[in-house]
């Protein structure tokens, strides 16, 4: 019916969700189908249905029902009702008004503070065919016509045993019931059941006994295997299941013969299959590195049919993958594969031979050292042929938590490994501390995320991103003992602009080595630079190597720089003047900085970056002055500079000006126009302000004056300048 409605354009834009990140453990193989309805078609359908269908939200119609209005058309005609909110007395009122004719009741949302169990004990909803609710009571004998029951995302711990009395029920949805532990034992008698959705029911302990008797069952999204009779994998033998199936607790399968009784290979309607030896990644019973001898035979017996599209294998405790994973013909339709927690497997099957593989996820393969081994150790003739090309259709690859992974391919005598990903668009590498290289050719790469993979040379990543015209975001640290290392993650993509922060820490020697390394890093990514304790980069008479380094910084698109804990005496004029794009500069904890210019620089020479807008100088105990500022500067702050005696005179374009703990400062320069925010804190020697600045006080948006006795008195109520500051919107004087 759905396909016919799509064919007739009643529904459109049908999509199977491809989001591989799900909050549910089994979300990898379960993909909801979404669609849209055109506005005109929706209006037409609404008109034709009349009062047969009704959607109630916070509207007058909703109030009519709650008030029991006898002349409401809903009382006489509505058959299909969707209610957005449920209040305490909603159900009771609806029973009296709309229950006799109602066929569909969908409760979309329940207020958390109001628990309204749907009581079926003496329900008047005797004609109900479809029900969506969040909690139900135990008696359901009146709902003999119910075909669809949806209790998804509810907090129920167990489905009432009385549910088995719903003999007409065809669809049971329990999606996202994370607390659900038990299903009714008598479910085997619900012979009309066709679809059971258990996605996200991660607390489910076992299945009801004899579920294999449900001969009409077409969908069973999850099956928890148990060793007790009537709850094992053999219950799946005669079920013709389709769509997606997740098998958990495979460790409880007795033997390979027992696994064959599940008849997985005969279920030709299955598109997506998950095989989990435990019950998700958080299971506390995982056997670790212990190898079970029968695990390989069990997995061999779980061979799927050749039309399978998605496969997820988790927590497998065997040492080798089965032969059917070496057969590219058997898996010729497989488009997505995820291997997770297979800690004992040292080699991968020849996945690069799978002709349709577009997604590959590898997570927690603790023993794996190489993605590709040229000489496969199976007897399969196909696997011993040198593959060409390598992963020819793969578009997405996720490699995470692989502590022993060292390389992408292992060289074998007599074979040439052609390692390429011609179609790869997204690559994620995380927690692979021993991986020391990257694929050389990724021509279509659009998204690259690298995290906790410190052995990969940084210039490999940068050059790869530059070749693919990607932008980069992240932090990079350079230290003498460890060299260049990413801090956190580096994310390369075609979205947004690059924003890389380069941190230089304790570079006191080997400046030549740093210069050579700097040449091979693409400079366009770096927007922020932090230089801490790196005295070798500063000098009153810079060497040629130092000049080369700063010239290279000038070629970067640097927008922000922080210089701290460096032994600088004179203002770094030579170093800064070529940083043409720099907008933000912070000098901190440079205790020997006086602010004077080097002898090679004239006093009137413009030494500030031409686009500098923000300048902050803090904790520079010997700072006396700073050079002439550029007209582009808008914000100037001094903090904890006790010897500062004067500020530059050209502050005409300053918008925000602040001084804090500058005990030697006595006055401000004249000619300050256009300032909107002024802060003066702990500057006891400042007694008055110049005439030009006083004239600007009424136009200020923000004023803060604290611990300045003379100024505080003048700015306080009744003081000399009170009439100038009383209308400032944000004003702090003293402790007020």
UniProtKB/TrEMBL annotation:
SUPFAM superfamilies hit by this protein: L domain-like
Sequence ranges assigned to domain R13L1/DRL21-like LRR repeat region in this UniProt record: 233-363
Secretion signal, residue range per the UniProt entry: none
Pfam families: LRR_R13L1-DRL21
Top-rank lineage group of the source organism: Eukaryota
Protein name as it appears in the record: R13L1/DRL21-like LRR repeat region domain-containing protein
Species this protein is from: Aegilops tauschii subsp. strangulata
């Amino acid at each position: 019916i759905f396909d016919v409605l799509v064919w007739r354009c009643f529904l459109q834009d049908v999509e199977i969700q491809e989001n591989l990140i799900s909050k549910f453990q089994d979300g990898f193989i379960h993909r909801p189908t979404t669609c849209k309805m055109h506005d005109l078609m929706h209006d037409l359908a609404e008109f034709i249905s009349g009062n047969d269908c009704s959607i109630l939200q916070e509207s007058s119609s909703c109030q009519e029902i709650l008030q029991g209005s006898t002349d409401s058309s809903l009382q006489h005609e509505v058959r299909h009702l969707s209610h957005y909110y449920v209040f305490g007395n909603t159900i009771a009122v609806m029973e009296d008004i709309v229950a006799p004719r109602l066929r569909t009741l969908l409760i979309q949302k329940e207020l958390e503070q109001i628990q309204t169990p749907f009581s079926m004990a003496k329900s008047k909803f005797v004609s109900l065919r479809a029900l969506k609710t969040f909690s139900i009571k135990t008696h359901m004998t009146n709902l003999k016509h119910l075909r669809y029951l949806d209790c998804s995302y509810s907090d129920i711990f167990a489905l009432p045993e009385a549910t088995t009395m719903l003999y007409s029920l065809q669809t049971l949805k329990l999606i996202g019931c994370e607390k659900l532990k038990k299903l009714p034992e008598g479910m085997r008698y619900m012979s009309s059941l066709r679809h059971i959705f258990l996605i996200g029911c991660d607390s489910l302990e076992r299945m009801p006994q004899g579920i294999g008797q449900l001969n009409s069952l077409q969908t069973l999204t999850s099956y928890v295997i148990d060793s007790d009779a009537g709850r094992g994998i053999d219950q799946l033998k005669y079920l013709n299941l389709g769509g997606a199936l997740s098998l958990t607790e495979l460790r409880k399968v007795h033997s390979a013969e027992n696994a064959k009784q599940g008849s997985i290979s005969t279920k030709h309607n299955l598109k997506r299959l998950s095989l989990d030896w435990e019950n998700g990644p958080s299971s506390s019973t995982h056997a670790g590195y212990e190898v079970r001898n029968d695990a390989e035979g069990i997995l061999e017996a779980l061979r799927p049919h050749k039309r399978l599209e998605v496969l997820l294998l988790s927590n497998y405790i065997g040492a080798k993958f089965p032969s059917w994973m070496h057969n590219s013909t058997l898996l010729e339709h497989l488009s997505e594969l995820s291997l997770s927690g297979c800690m004992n497997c040292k080699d991968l099957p020849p996945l690069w031979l799978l002709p349709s593989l577009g997604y590959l996820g590898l997570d927690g393969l603790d023993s794996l050292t190489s993605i590709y081994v040229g000489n496969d150790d199976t007897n399969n003739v196909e696997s011993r042929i040198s593959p060409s090309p390598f992963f020819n259709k793969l578009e997405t690859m996720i490699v995470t938590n692989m502590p022993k992974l060292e390389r992408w391919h292992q060289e074998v005598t007599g074979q040439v490994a052609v390692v390429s990903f011609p179609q790869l668009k997204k690559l994620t590498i995380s927690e692979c501390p021993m991986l020391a290289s990257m694929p050389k050719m990724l021509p279509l790469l659009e998204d690259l995320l690298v995290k906790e993979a410190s052995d990969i040379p940084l210039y490999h990543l940068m050059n790869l991103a530059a070749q693919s015209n990607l932008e980069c975001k992240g932090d990079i640290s350079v230290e003498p003992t460890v060299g260049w290392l990413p801090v956190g993650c580096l994310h390369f993509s075609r979205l947004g602009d690059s924003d890389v922060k380069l941190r230089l820490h304790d570079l006191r020697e080997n400046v030549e080595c740093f210069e050579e390394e700097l040449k091979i890093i693409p400079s366009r990514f770096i927007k922020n630079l932090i230089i801490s304790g790196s005295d070798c980069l500063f000098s009153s008479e810079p060497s040629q190597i130092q000049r080369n380094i700063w010239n290279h910084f000038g070629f970067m698109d640097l927008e922000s720089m922080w210089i701290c804990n460096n032994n600088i005496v004179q203002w770094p004029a030579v170093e800064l003047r070529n940083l043409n794009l720099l907008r933000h500069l912070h000098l901190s904890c440079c205790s020997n900085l006086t602010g004077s210019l080097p002898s090679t620089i004239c006093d009137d020479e413009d030494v500030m970056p031409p686009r500098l807008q923000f300048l902050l100088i803090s904790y520079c105990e010997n700072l006396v002055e700073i050079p002439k500022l550029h007209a582009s500067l808008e914000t100037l702050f001094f903090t904890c500079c006790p010897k500062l005696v004067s500020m530059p005179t050209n502050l005409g374009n300053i918008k925000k000006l602040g001084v804090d703990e500058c005990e030697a400062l006595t006055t401000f320069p004249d000619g300050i126009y256009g300032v909107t925010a002024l802060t003066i804190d702990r500057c006891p020697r400042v007694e008055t302000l110049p005439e030009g600045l006083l004239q600007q006080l009424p136009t200020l948006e923000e004023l803060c004056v604290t611990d300045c006795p003379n100024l505080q008195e003048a700015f306080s109520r009744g003081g000399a300048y009170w009439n100038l500051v009383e209308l400032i919107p944000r004003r702090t004087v003293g402790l007020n």
